[in-house]
Amino acid sequence: MTVTFDSREDTSGELIRDFAPLLAVTDIRIDEPSAESIIRRLYEGDLRFDPTDS
Amino acid sequence: MRAHPTATTPIIEVRGLTKQFRRPMKEPGLKGAVRHLFRPRFADINAVEDVNLSILPGESVAYVGPNGAGKSTTVKLLTGILAPTSGTVTVSGLTPFENRIENARNIGVVFGQRSQMWWDIPVIESFRLLGDIYEITEDRFAASFGELNDVLELEPLLKVPARQLSLGQRMRCDLAASLLHRPPILYLDEPTIGLDVSVKARFRQFIRYMHRERGLTVMQTSHDLGDIEELCDRMVMIDKGKIVYDGALNEVTARFGWERALHLTLTEPDPSAVETASRALSMRTGAVATQPEPTM
């Protein structure tokens, strides 16, 4: 299972605390977006250099 | 990463640069061709629009953007191959399209998909011809070629005609050819396109050496983020002819790298895990639990 989240709003620790008591989790891996995926999304217009992005 | 530029006067200065191309608008078929002959219609396309850019001596700058964004057009404007529709370009104090010969003495250019080597003659002869074109004295040629020969290990290639070189070997020779006259500026347009990982690594090592040890100012277009991460600490992004970002690559990743993914392995498969997690995360608006599709 994968949980995606906005690190500006939540931390991974908060999320883990929320669901860990309810699920039998044996391992956790955290992925950050690669520079390549960010640049790709900028090219595709999915992300923009607007003042609201910062 | 860069040879920390100390000069404050830009070696490349671009102000309000615009390049417009006129594209014929033909309708399909014979009827369209005849109509275009008598009543031609054109559309003006801004390949580069109001670009402002200053590069200091000793900087290494990546110029990136999607295909058709205007990268190569900018390089052609900087090299003097194209004249701008409006705006100014100054490279080492010269206007490139008005002073093409003088400007050529100050720049080296490598286009990843083209070669400046003569196809049918041994590589060494191409170097000698370039030495004559740039009016390099025997002493300077010997010193410059000697260094490039050592660093790029060209010796085994010198008697081979360019057409018989592999892409990686040709790139090494093109790099040497572009720097034979010791220009202070090197433009690289998609230099690592088609190169394998080991040749790319060698290419980057060489550019790093020339940048750090020789203070070479480098401007390169590339779709390879490895080139940018390893060689440039400044990235200029162009999109639809306009500059949309000018800063460090890591600032972009810091600015947009807020999305995280937590991958969870459960003790045993649980068909209701996503539902359970979604309930637990219901108060957190940005968090979404999903079950990834199994991969083959």
Describe this structure in words.
The complex is a heterodimer of chains A (54) and B (296). Chain A is 31% helix and 22% strand. Chain A is of the alpha+beta class. Chain B is an alpha/beta fold. In chain B, strands 5-6-7-3-8-9 form a six-stranded mixed sheet, sandwiched between helices. Chain B has a three-stranded antiparallel sheet with strand order 2-1-4. In chain B, helix 5 runs antiparallel to helix 6. Chain B starts with 11 loop residues before the first strand and ends in a 6-residue tail after the last strand. The model of chain B has no long low-confidence stretch (mean pLDDT 90). The chains are: A alpha+beta (54), B alpha/beta (296).
Give the tags.
heterodimer, A: 54 residues, alpha+beta, B: 296 residues, alpha/beta, three-stranded antiparallel sheet, 26% strand, globular
Look at the helices and sheets of chain B and give the structural class. Answer: alpha/beta
Q: How much of the residues of chain B is beta strand, in percent?
A: 25-35%
Q: Report the sheet with the most strands of chain B, covering strand number, pairing sense and barrel closure.
A: 6 strands, mixed
What spatial order of strands do you see in the largest sheet of chain B?
5-6-7-3-8-9
Low-confidence stretches of chain B: none
Which overall shape of chain B is indicated by the principal axes computed on the Cα atoms?
A: globular
Structural class of chain A: alpha+beta
Radius of gyration of chain A: 15 Å
Assembly context of the chains: heterodimer
The tally of helices of chain A reads 2
User: Kindly, what is the distance between the CA atoms of the first and last residues of chain A, rounded to a whole number of angstroms?
Assistant: 30 Å
User: Tally the helices of chain B: what do you get?
Assistant: 10
Using CB atoms under 8 Å apart, which protein chain pair has the greatest interface?
A: A-B, 39 and 43 residues
Helix and strand pattern of chain B: EHEEHEHEHHHEHEHEEHEHE
Give the terminus-to-terminus CA distance of chain B: 41 Å
| Coarse shape of chain A | elongated
Q: Could you tell me the number of beta strands of chain B?
A: 11
The low-confidence runs of chain A, each spanning 5 or more residues with pLDDT under 50, are none
Question: Strand-residue fraction of chain A?
Answer: 15-25%
